[in-house]
Amino acid sequence: MKFLRMRPGYGEQLIAEGDIEVAEDEERLVEEFRRQLAQGMWAAVPVTSTTGRREAEMVTAFEEIPRETGRVIFFPRAAGGAR
């Protein structure tokens, strides 16, 4: 599994990588996932719909990530908006 962070002007940047079947890797990935959320990032998992359309599914906990997922993308929340 790869964790990628979207940065405006830079595209995707690899921030963590590991095999979730290896305990040490999974622990490191869980820590990095939580760290990214604590920094205010959102997380999404790329999925393909039944019609073949590529979409993203938001996740808020490591346990929500499907085991077969190859990557998780972190991106900043939009600034502004109504309160």
Write the layout of secondary structure elements.
Layout: E1 2-7, E2 11-17, H1 23-38, E3 41-48, E4 54-59, E5 71-76
Parallel strand pairs: 1-5
Antiparallel strand pairs: 1-2, 3-4, 3-5
Q: Rg, please?
A: 13 Å
Number of strands: 5
Question: For the residues shown, what is the average pLDDT?
Answer: 91
Give the helix/strand class: alpha+beta
Q: Calculate the terminal CA-CA distance, rounded to whole Å.
A: 36 Å
Tell me the strand order in the biggest sheet.
2-1-5-3-4
Uncertain regions spanning at least 5 consecutive residues:
none
Question: Helix and strand succession?
Answer: EEHEEE
Tally of helical segments: 1
* Envelope shape: globular
Helix content bin:
10-25%
**How many structural domains are formed by the residues?**
1
- Percentage of residues in DSSP E strands: 35-45%
**Main beta sheet:** 5 strands, mixed
Molecular structure report:
There is one protein chain. By secondary structure, the chain is an alpha+beta fold. It has one domain (2-76). The protein has one helix spanning 23-38; strands at 2-7, 11-17, 41-48, 54-59, 71-76. The protein has a five-stranded mixed sheet. Strand 3 and strand 4 form a beta hairpin. It is globular, with a radius of gyration of 13 Å. The chain starts with a strand and ends in a 7-residue tail after the last strand.
